Amino acid sequence: MAGAGISTDAGIPDFRSPGTGLYDNLQKFNLPHPEAIFSIDYFRRNPKPFYVLAKELYPGQYVPTQSHFFVKLLEQKGLLLRHYTQNIDCLERTAGIDPELIVEAHGSFHTAHCIGRKCRQEYSQAWVKEHIFRDEIPRCSSCDSLVKPDITFFGEGLPSRFFELLVEDFARCDLLIVMGTSLLVQPFASIIDHVGPHVPRLLINRMRVGESKAPGAGFDFDGRFGKSLHRDAFVAGDSDEACALFAGHLGWLDELVELRASHIAKQGLDLAK
Ligand code: APR
Q1: What domain of life does the native source organism fall in (predicted)?
Q2: DSSP state of 159
């Protein structure tokens, strides 16, 4: 399970880190509150802030991090059951993780639809991108309603794929790794409790998050609710460093470094980024 924290080292701000998080840097849009930029009701009234931000954050300008490639390595080792991400930056796809093994719980820029209630015409990512980079608000050619990338806005339901795969995946999961998320947004945050009661859970995050207030509801890093339930571990710090540490312990560090270096070489990107 992942959140914006696995992409900050790629240069994409997360949402809630004090000072650097996106929600601390939206003053120029004069929003009623920061999350309005991803609210469907606000978007219907004023789509401009979202599209200005979309241009700044548009996928394709960023290189996947060591954390993305650690997930890719788990896939290559046949250990990745599924990667549930809240991120819309498509960096998991860019890192080459099999899309069948990715659940983009908050959607992504990968597809787009007209939001006209009777229309819902689909539009390609390329068509929307062209409008975004021409500073034009994309509108449906059939009904002139707004066109929005298939990102889950506040006030919208999550993609059906999330619910279709969740039950079986979390029943089969034998180790849950959670990286770079504040675990503040539902229903994504609560699925950490969907794994079996004795499945080990590892949080890799700059801050302790998702802690339980009652047995069986959230992480219990200190075994407060009984030794038998003590299956949660917390690694404080950057996910890239933690992934490199784990790869080192597993004897996979060279493969991890090589994965990212060859991606960068293939893209002809400047390694210094
Ligand atoms: N390594 C580890 N943790 C990190 C790193 C990093 N390099 N960078 C940031 N973090 C941590 C932050 O300390 C924070 O706890 O990652 C977490 C990011 O939390 P948020 O900014 O809230 O992002 P996220 O959890 O993905 O937000 C969830 O909120 O607004 C909605 O839809 C949006 O998907 C998003 C959802």
Answers
A1: Eukaryota
A2: P
Q: Give the Cβ contact number of residue 251 at 10 Å.
A: 8
Give the Cβ contact number of residue 231 at 10 Å: 18
Find out whether 82 and 165 touch, Cβ atoms under 8 Å: yes
Residues with CB under 6 A from ligand 1: 3-5, 8-9, 14-17, 21, 35, 38, 86, 106, 180-182, 184-185, 205-207, 209, 238-239
Report the separation in Å between the CA atom of 99 and the middle of ligand 1, taken as the mean of its atom positions: 22
CB-based burial label for 178 (10 Å; 0-12, 13-18, 19+) = buried
pLDDT in tens, 201-237: 999 999 999 998 787 789 999 888 776 667 999 999 9
Give the residue whose CA is nearest to atom 25 of ligand 1.
Answer: 181
Q: How many Å from the N-terminal Cα to the C-terminal Cα in the chain?
A: 26
Give the pLDDT confidence of 24-35 residue by residue, as tens digits: 999 999 999 999
